[in-house]
Amino acid sequence: MRKLRTHLSLAMTLVALVTVALISLLSNVFVGSRFESYVREQHEVKTEHILNDLTMQYNGLARTWNTAAIHEAGMYALREGYIVKLYDGYTGEIIWDAENHDMTECEHIMKEISERMARRGSTGEFTSVEYPLTRNNRLIGTAQVKYFGPFFLSESDFNFLNALNMILLSAAVASLLVSFVVGWLLARRIARPIARTAEIAKQISAGNYALRFSGITKTMELDNLITTVNHLSDSLSKQEGLRKQLTADVAHELRTPIAALGSNLETMIEGVWEPTPERLQSCYEEITRLGKLVADLESLERVEGGNLALAKTPADLMELVRIVCDNFAGDFANKDLKLRVEGEQSKITIDKDRISGVISNLISNTVKYTPEGGQIRVCVRDSKHESILTVEDNGVGIPEDELPFIFERLYRADKSRNRNTGGAGIGLAIVKSVITAHGGKVEVQSKPGKGSRFVVTIPKDGDWEVLRC
Ligand code: ADP
Q1: For residues 332 and 301, is the Cβ–Cβ distance under 8 A?
Q2: Is the minimum distance from the CB of 73 to ligand 1 under 6 angstroms?
């Protein structure tokens, strides 16, 4: 398996390679064809020029040719790659012949051009074309011009094309190098945090939740990945803590009543104690407490298990509050607690049983955590979009550092105190789950020694709006 760095570097190099190859190919094709037509045009111009030069050397009156000038023009044409032969128009005699004049030079030039064009892959050859030379519409001579057809490139044309290819080749090498280095650097920037995140994920899977990735990568997706892995680590660590605490607490909660029950029954079986109705009653109460704890755990599992099915019906929250408060009348009286129920009617579509459970949990907590003679206030407020329930007391309150945890299952602030109250730390976890399932929220404000205030906000469903109209 290849490393990401190798993959990216190779990919970048491949892209550069393809781009350079394409540019080279296209520029060669386009420049080549443009250049070819330019050379063809040049050929026309040069031939025209040679023919004009030759025509000018004819003396019409004397019917003679200026051979010295023709020689000069012919030699010039020869150096340009054109082998000229001139015939007189009247006599048909050869006036000037480049091959006759300097055979070696002609052969040398023809060989040079043929080799040069063969290198370029041309299949052309030297051909002769005859052009009539006229003056005043009268034929004065015939010029036979021999050149490499259909076209040929001069030395400087060749140099130009070679220079162009050299430029393309240098650009290709430079861009390949640059793309390889850029790919390598880019890959290093991406690969490092990924490797580190993978290492952290490996540590997490091995149960080591303390590791965190602290670097910033400046790449959105990588930062998201790192944040997600860090969150995963956080929540796993929290879950792990809760799981341990849950096991410890459940064991603890069960151990105490079971031990008490066991020793009481043992003493009665051994005949040390008479099984009086009071003693049996006490055993029965322990069993009831155990049953309640198990029932609480079960209902917590139901609401937190993700399959909380709400049986929503229209209800008046105020009416539910009054019913629940009535059920607590005995408890309020026992602790001499003063209850004030305030507010207004608030119609809302909710699961009545579960919301009654929520109210009941909050009120039972106020009873548990408010000393004798304390005050409890329950208030219902109604607005267009939500119902707000406030339950507050002037009881013992909750320490600030414990507030973020009280909605966790089996979490009990001030554990020793709560052992006496008989709470297992499940009630508020259920409250939160039920309210969350209704799309609402629970907030808490508290000051130790001053009291606590729980505020539950439940949004009203669209259905209810329709029902109200
Ligand atoms: P418990 O069964 O222990 O009451 P809860 O989940 O209902 O469990 O509450 C969690 C913890 O929050 C309690 O153990 C208690 O410390 C704290 N708490 C809840 N309500 C109040 C309150 N009204 N006043 C003071 N503390 C409270």
Answers
A1: no
A2: no
